[in-house]
Amino acid sequence: MTLYLIQEQYLRDWLAEIIATGRRVIAPQSENGLVVYREVTRAETIDLHARAKPDFSFKHILFPQTETVFRYEWRERRPVVEDAAAETSADAENASASVQGEVVVVGATPCDAASLLVLDHVFLADPPDPFYARRRENLIVIGRSCSHAQPECFCTTVGLSPVSTQGCDIFLMPLGADLCDELDIGSGFVAEVLSEKGEALVANVKATWVKPNGSDHSTWLNELKAAHLRAVQAEMLPRRALTPSPDELKKDFEHPAWEEIARACLSCGVCAFVCPTCHCYDLSEERQGRIWSRCRNWDSCAFGYFTLHASGHNPRPTALERYRQRVMHKFCYFLEATGANMCVGCGRCVKFCPVGLDIYQARARWP
Amino acid sequence: MAMKNPYVPSILTVDEIRDETPDVRTLRLRLPSNGSRLSWRAGQFAQFTVFGVGECPFTFANSPTRAEYVECTFKLMGKVTGALRELAVGDAVGLRGPYGNFFPLESWRGRNLIFVGGGIGMAALRAPLQFVLDHRKDYGEILILNGARTVADLVYKEEMNEWSAFDGVKLIRTVDPGGETPEWDGEVGLVPHVFEKIAPTPSDSIVITCGPPIMIHFMLLTLEKCGYPKERVVTTLENKMKCGFGKCGRCNVGSVYVCKDGPVFTAAQLERLPKEF
User: Fold this and answer.
1) CA A224/CA A235 separation, integer angstroms
2) How crowded is residue B110: how many other Cβ atoms within 10 Å of its Cβ?
3) What contacts B81, CB < 8 A, 6 or more positions away?
4) Which of A164, B88, B119, B262 is deepest in the core (most CB within 10 A)?
C-alpha cells in the first residue's frame, strides 16, 4: 500500500486525464431525481464531496440487469448458435492492447466496493462466468470514505465502516480543513493505493501526488480514519454489531417470530433489485425477428415463481419462507460458505421497501 | 484469454422416441457428429434446451456405461416438457452439463441395493440401475420397488422385465389403491406402505429412493421406522434450477445448492437442511 496526499485540483486533473485516455469512467450522477452510477465524460461533474451514497450500487456494471448469454437462429430446421461471450472476449482482446477496455468507478462507497467481494465469490467460482469475469478483470475501483450516514445505513454492524477499503484499488478520504491549512494545500485528499491496478493508474502522477513526510504513516492514517469514523458514527442510529452466528439463526428457523417479521412483505422484490450483493438470476428465451437469444435477467427470491416447480409444488410458498430465505441467505448460508456476511449494510432494501421491512431489525432479533 | 461460456449448449439430435406412459416419454438423443464425447456419472443431470422455447433440468436416464447416446425421460408438466413432446426424430435438442454430484456406486460394491421409485422419479434410478446391472457381479442382491398411481402410469415396463430376469434381482410393482386393473397381479398400496409390508432387512443394504416430494417424505419416515441408518438412505432432489452450476440461486436450500452440492443426498444430509425442497 502506498499513501499520497493530493490537492483537489490535481486529483481532478488526474481524473480528467483518465477520461482523456479513453477509459470509461463511472461515477455517481443525478438522474431523474436519483443518484446513480453512470458514465461521465467530464471530470467536473464528479462530486468528490457527495453527502449521500448513491441510490443504487454499481452492480449493473458487472452484472447488467438483462444480458444475452448466447444467440441462435434457424437454418434448415437446425439452430445455429453464436456464443455471446466470444464476442465480448474478442472485443476485449482488441481493447486490452490499449487501456480502453478498462472501466474506472470513481467515488464508490465502502459498502458498494465491499459488495464486489461477494459477487466475486459467486461469479468467479468454478466455472467462472465469462461475462462477469471479463468485466471484473477490466474494472478499477476508486473508493471514497463516507462523510455522512443516512438513516438506513448500518455498515458498522456487519464489519464494514465509512472508511473501510475492501474491494478498492484506490481509496480516497478528504483531509480536514485543519490539516489542509497545516499542509498549505487548500482542499485535499489522502489516497491509499491498494493494488497493482491502482498503482498502474497513478503511475504518471507522482509529481503532483505527494508522499507524506515522516515514516510512521500507518499510525497517522489510523488516527485520521478513527476521527472520521467517530464523526460519521455520531450520525448513525445506535445499533449493536451483528455477531456472526449462523448456528443461532439456524436453530430458530421455525421460530414464530418469522411470521411477525415477514407479515407485511408484499413479495415485490425491490429489496433484491436495489441490493449490491443480490445476484440471483433467471434465464429465458427472447426473440427479435429471426434471432433468438438466451437472456439472463435479475431475479428475486421474494417472488413466488422463484421456486415454483412445474408440478405446482412450491418449497417456499408464502412471503414468510421467502423473506426468511433472504435473511438466512445473507446472514447464515453465505456466511457458512465464505466466512463473511452477504450483507454490506447499505440499507437500500430498508430505504426502498414499500412497507418498511428492515433487514437489520430482522437479523438483530438473534444473538 | 478465451474463457468457456458455460451457458452455451451442445446440439444433440432426437434419434428415438418411446412413450413410457400416456404422459411420460423417453427421448434417445444422438451426440453431435463432430466426434465430441460426453461423460457423466449416474445421478448427474443436464440442462436440456428446446430451441425457441426454453430450458429444463433432467437427469441422465441412461448409465454412463451406455454413453454412445443420451436418454432423457420426462413427464408432461409445463412449457418445455410440452415442447419436448412436439419434437420428432431428427430434431435438435440443446444439452449442457453434466452437473451435480452422483451416486457413489464405486463405494457400494458388494452391497445389497434397494431401489424405490415412484412415478417419474424412477427416471433418476434408471442410470444407477443400468450401471449396477452392467457390473452385475460387483453388487449383491437387488430389490426394485416401483410404484405409480395407476397401472398405466408405471414407467419402463418392458425394461423392468429384462432387469428382473437378472440373477439376484427382485422386482415388486405397486399401484395406488384404485389404480389397479382387473388383470393387475402386482401390489396395491402406496409405496411406503408396500415397503413396510415387505420389510427387507436393513443389514448391509443401501436404499436409493426417488419420487414426488410427498413420497420421499413418507419413505424417509418409513425407512427410519424400519431401522435403516440415515447414512445408507440416499435420495435425489429436484428444485427449480436455471444455471446448473451454483450461481443463479434458484435451487438454494439452506447452505447447499441442489445443482452443485446435490442432487444426490443421504437422509442424514437432508435432516440437516431446512424443509424447503
Assistant:
1) 18
2) 9
3) A310, B56, B74, B75
4) B262
DSSP letters spanning A181-201: HHHT-SSEEEEEE-SHHHHHH
Long-range contact set of residues B167-172: C-beta below 8 Å, sequence gap at least 24: B167/B136, B168/B136, B168/B140, B168/B141, B168/B142, B169/B133, B169/B142, B169/B143, B169/B144, B170/B141, B170/B142, B170/B143, B170/B144, B171/B144, B171/B146, B172/B143, B172/B144, B172/B145, B172/B146, B172/B198
Beta bridge partners of A78: A75
Question: Within an 8 Å CB–CB cutoff, is residue A55 touching chain B?
Answer: no
Q: Of all helices (H) and strands (E), which one includes residue B196?
A: helix B191-198
Return all residues near B168 (Cβ < 8 A) that are at least 6 apart.
Answer: B136, B140, B141, B142
Cis peptide before B57 (omega within 30 of 0): no
Which value, to the nearest 10 degrees, does the dihedral of the CA atoms of residues B1, B5, B11, B16 take? 130
Q: Which of A135-139, A245-249, B5-9 has the lowest mean pLDDT?
A: A245-249
Instruction: Enumerate residues 250 to 269 of chain A having a beta carbon within 8 A of any beta carbon in chain B.
Output: 250, 253
Q: What are phi and psi for residue A2, nearest 5 degrees?
A: -115, 145
End-to-end CA distance of chain B: 39
Q: Does A124 touch chain B (CB under 8 A)?
A: no
Cα A45 to Cα A25, A41, B82, B210: the distances in Å are: 11, 8, 54, 61
Question: Rounded CA gap, A281 and A301, in Å?
Answer: 9
| Nearest CB partner across the interface for B51, out of A123, A292, A306 | A292
> Would you state the torsion angle of the CA atoms of residues B2, B7, B8, B10, taken in this order, to the nearest 10 degrees?
120
- pLDDT confidence bin for A97, thresholds 50/70/90: very low
Measured in degrees and rounded to the nearest 5, phi and psi for residue B93 equal -130, 135
Q: Which residues contact A158 (CB under 8 A, 6 or more apart)?
A: A242, A341, A343, A344, A345
pTM for this model (two decimals): 0.93
**Residues in a beta bridge with A220:** none
pLDDT tens digit string along B130-161? 999 999 999 999 999 999 999 999 999 999 99
Q: Reduce the DSSP state of residue A75 to 3 states and report it.
A: strand
Q: What is the dihedral of CA B238, B241, B243, B244, to 10 degrees?
A: 0
Q: Provide the ipTM.
A: 0.92
Cα angle for residues A280, A88, A124 (degrees, 5° grid):
40
Which residue bears the cell 457423466?
B40
SS3 A74: strand
Please name the amino acid found at residue A56: F
Q: What are phi and psi of B118, to 5 degrees?
A: -120, 125
Residue carrying C-alpha cell 487501456: A99
User: What does each C-alpha distance from A264 to A36, A261, A268 come to in angstroms?
Assistant: 28, 8, 11
> Can you tell me the distance from the alpha carbon of B192 to that of B215, in angstroms, rounded to the nearest whole number?
7
Which stretches within A234-364 are classed as H helix? 246-251, 257-262, 270-273, 319-328, 334-338, 348-352, 359-364
Is pLDDT above 70 for A99?
A: no
Q: Could B250 and A280 be called an inter-chain contact, meaning their C-beta atoms sit closer than 8 Å?
A: yes
Helix (H) or strand (E) holding B174: strand B169-175
Residues in chain B whose Cβ is within 8 Å of chain A: 1-9, 11, 51-56, 77-78, 81, 91-92, 94, 212-213, 238-240, 242-243, 245-250, 252-255, 274-277
pLDDT, tens digit, 9 for 90 and up, residues A272-303: 999 999 999 999 999 999 999 999 999 999 99
Longest dimension (CA), chain B: 66
End-to-end Cα, chain A, rounded Å: 36
